[in-house]
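Q: Convert this sequence to structure tokens.
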Amino acid sequence: MLHEMFMRIALEMAEEAGRQGDVPVGAVVAQKGRVVAKACNRREVDRDPFAHAEMLALREAAKILGRRRLSDCILYVTLEPCPMCAGALVMASLGMCYFAARDARQGCVESVYALPQDPAFYHRVPCIGGLLEEEAKALLKHFFQGYRLE
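A:
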């Protein structure tokens, strides 16, 4: 399945984030069955509170495609987007978002709030959660278990 293939690439990016000491979150922007951009969390590495995987992947996709509207693109991300990233989905006029693990504390496409579906905004982004959720949850669990031991 194509969606699983892209999410597996996002999981590889999440593993890279974890190896760099950052929360293991990865993201892929796809268009017409091909990867346009991919990124992992770089908040700790870059000392940048905005260096979330989603933000970096969306920014790179916009740069590569030469436009800010990504309505023909799909974002695959290993963790449900936070409020900032959920807002970025809307501002990028993204076509769709698939995410793996739900985030009961900060997830703002479904769990805490459904910002991309809020009728207050001009653009709405369909979001589907749970794609390879167990794999993403295992990465996060492993990372935070190690983090607590330090």
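The mean pLDDT is 96.
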